[in-house]
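Q: Structure tokens for this one, please.
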Amino acid sequence: MSDTPATPQPPAEAGPPRAPRFLLIWGVLLPLLALGAELGLHLLGDLFMDPIPTPIHALLIALVPLANGLLYRALGQEQLHHLQALNWLNGMALGVASYYALVFLPLTPFGLLAILAFGIGFLVLSPVLSLIAAIRGRRLLKQRLAREERSLPLPVGGVLLALIALTLVDLSPGLTRVGLQMTMAQSPATRQAGVDLLRRVGHEDTMLSQAYGYFTPFSGPLGLLASWFPGTEQVSQNQAQDIYYRVTGKTALEQMPPLHGPYNRYRDRSMEFQLRGGSTVGRAIPEVNLVGSRLEGSLDAQASTAYLEWTQVYRNDGSTTHEARSKILLPPGAVVSRLTLWINGEEQEAAFGTRSATRGAYEKVVQARRDPVLVTTAGRDRIMVQLFPIPAHGGEMKVRIGITVPLVTDSLRQARLQLPAFRERNFGMAGDFRHAVWLEANGPLTGTPLLRTEPAPSRTYALRGEIPDAELGRGPLVGLERDPSMSTVWGPLGAEQKGILLQHYQESPVRAPRRLALVVDGSRFLAPHAQALSQALAALPATVELGLFIASDDNPPPGGRRTPQEAAQALASQHFTGGQDNSAALLAAWNWAAAAPEGEAATLLWVHGPQAQLLGSMEPLLQGLQQRRNRVQLLTLEAEPGPNRVLEALEPLAALRVLPVTGALRQDLERQLAAWQPGAKEIRILRQPQAPGARPQGPRTSDHPARLWAAGEIERLLDQPKPDQKAATALALSYRLVTPVSGAVVLEKAEDYDEADLDRPDNARVPTIPEPEEWALMLAVLALLLWQFRRRRQAGSRSAPTALPA
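A: Here is the predicted structure, written as tokens:
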């Protein structure tokens, strides 16, 4: 039996090619779903970082599903068309997907876990999955072309085009990442080059994100390369805050966070909670506003003192309670002597205690969410005010701060008053917000045009008006005329002290400095004042040797002896930029001034803007000033208002004096320089306690001079080689003053004071603004004393023996 050959079967009819489903699912549908979900719901932007910050980013991302979709369609066709265009699109998809896969690489493990819990994990993994799909699809296309004996060029052009597009769209954030990494280099020149780069092209949101500790937003391929910058370490949150200040001159944590969404709002509330009760003001809370401000005061021409009461009303329109925090610039030499909080519509006075006891009591009650307010010092002539909790949903809190002020006495005929003003705050104000001001005195008043003369009771004077917040504490000073023959006044010594306090006016020649070290802040805030500084130097007496030191990026800062003309030229050519570290320039200036011949006076005058960040150490300067007391007097003049961490660090120094400001820097500086002209005289006010039974001299005044004497005595006790903290604290509590060793706090319940070991408030010792009738009574008493003095003098002259003729 022979084998029959098998009949050959006809070949099966070949169908159309089948495109892989994975390319459709992971390369097209998933990236489209991720793009749509992020554009509509902002899931990743709210939780981590915004992957689509601009419409151009959305178009670049859309290229990935588009290119994969066209590749899927091509693989399912019998004939391949437009291979060159398909290759370019595939290359661009590979470039975009690769970049986003690298950016999301730190989140990939969380994405894998989030797949099990939430579908959002697929959004995080979308770049990686679409990249894998594009690579596998390209491999299938290459295999098919190989069977057709055709080749597929490398997609270098498409990948480069995608990377170039991503680089251009993120050029500023990318260069910012490069600059940030350069600031961490070991070489000082590279670090400074990084700061210069950020000042020119820095992207503020990128720097803020780093300073807030957020995930850094997309910054293109340059940003990724910057992460591997040679010889650098990663920028920490604190370092980023210092860099942000050096670049912009502003404090990062006082700015609004760069990202917004539910999670970021939660983080904002978390940060606000961390700042609550602390000594940092922080950024403004949009829901909290100052809605009422009333500043009232009484001025005493004969004693050259004033007592001001600043009443403030805060409202919280948010859904949670908040704390209001602010730092206030006081008039030169002023001291807080009263604090009042309205609780349930009733006034509650403050208890005065040690700084640690009052802050500890405040923080404890804040945790219990009850009504406290705290006032402490925050640098020379500055205080910090904190009150909590401001009730939610339109709730209000009302506080009053009493301030005892020594008037600036230029001559025996004229005294001047500078009003207090905010320098930092975490609450808002309406754009047209104004402070209502009422000042009353026993002498003629003059001042800013915003304050008009008001009718007042007989023999008293008053000014009234409304002052915008920007001009409060910087406008023309209020002037008060006084009787030049009134050289001595007296008042009660106050507190537990027995006896009286005599206050003398002494006119004496000015002791001009032999050397003047002028330190000028090189920050951007001083740029508008460079010409005024140059012009004011013409008022410097020829007898004073001038040294100019400009705080700049140079280390060590250049400086040394200059003529006024040379100093003016240096200021005119100076490039004021960013935020500068003034500590090194202050130390160099102090060393130069302290080298003056022994026995000759030396002065350091620091003209500055805001110092929102303390970049350098103040310890070397503090050491020199404390070890060589009275060697150099330190004067400061504020050219631009704002926070000042340097003055806070210099608070313990008795040699430090803050000059009054009028808002016109040239006039303020010229006034100080002209005061050192040969033959110039100055008015010194001497306050001397007298033993019980001492005879009063001159008219009687209030007890405010005694408070100012106590504040000066506390400063003296703290400025000794071995500070007498115990005696200074006892004196501060005796006179109920806010000083570097004491604070004032209002607590809601009586037992809160006992628990904090604080004496309960004593309403009988609270200073008040005299009513008009009190002024009239005081003037009447003064007139009676003068009449009695004149009568006795006339009687004495009549009873004197008459000489007989020779």
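A few notes: The longest strand covers residues 288-300. The first helix runs from residue 21 to 41.
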